[in-house]
Amino acid sequence: MTVEKNIDLKDIISFLESELMTVYGEPDSVVVRHLKDPEHVDEFTLDWINPLKPDKQKIAETSKAKVIIADKEVVFSETLKNQGKVLLVVDNPKLAIAKVGNEFFVEKPIPGIHPSAVIHPDAQIGENVFIGANTIIENCIIGNDSIIDANVHIYSSVIMGNHCTVKSGAVLGGMGFGFEKDENGNLFRFPQIGNLFIGDYVEIGANTCIDRGALSDTVIGDYCKINNLCHIAHNNVIGRNVVITAQVNISGSNIIEDDVWVAPNASIRGWLTMGKGATIGMGSVVTKDVPAGETWVGNPARKLEKNKQ
Fold first, then answer.
1. How deeply is 55 buried, as exposed, middle or buried, from its count of CB atoms within 10 A (0-12, 13-18, 19+)?
2. Distance between CA atoms of 137 and 32, rounded to whole angstroms?
3. Cβ-proximal residues to 10 (8 Å cutoff; 6+ apart), any chain
4. pLDDT by residue (tens digit) across 201-247?
5. Is 234 annotated in the active site?
6. Is the model's pLDDT at 132 over the cut of 80?
7. Which of 31, 39, 232, 242 has the fewest CB atoms below 10 angstroms from its CB?
């Protein structure tokens, strides 16, 4: 259920201070109550204009909102001035509205530990952490300002940074799937004694499993976003700002460099490198290294060649 707010515009301006280029109009005594989709904007909406729109000035001048966030291509025209609007000019309106939305409009759980959660006495839990119902926290480290939803299991091998979010049903730091055969073909487990390092501002989706390392460590870099129902096996080293979308399977011992995007249902074989800024297409089966900046699609995945005009 959406709760109406009464937010002083001056507080929003103060929050965006480092990103604001200019403020036009009279922000004093202006109150913002909500964010809305374009079809339901009213005078109390904090509206924003996508920089990709071709008719940004018209959108600003016809918006019902009193306050609009836009880039510098939208000018504070006589029409906007006569309408009594306030124009907040930033370089990236979508990023600005995202930050404002998370700061002022997203309902965050109150920090605390649910009575049904099981916490190891030696676990190191940071400040302002929320831990949900039936969650199991072993002897691990969880950084400040993190949210751990219900029914999560975090093993003792995990060292988690600050401002992380882990959704319900995730299993972090369990033993990886590694075995060796004896002379009779019988399988024996290879030791899984490494750690799982999770950086700052990482989000991990519902029912996602990330294994600890075998003899080395599994690493998830800062600002990575991992969607629901993913599997990340042991010894993967994942850089910063990597996006792993739903139902992705990543076998062990890959290197996934910064800014890689992995689309839904993709599979990555193992012992491969995904270069910086690479894109792995939906449903792709990756069996070879992917160079930086390239897009690979298909089964087996191949480089997507752009059509020459």
1. exposed
2. 40
3. 27, 28, 30
4. 999 999 999 999 999 999 999 999 999 999 999 999 999 999 999 99
5. yes
6. yes
7. 39
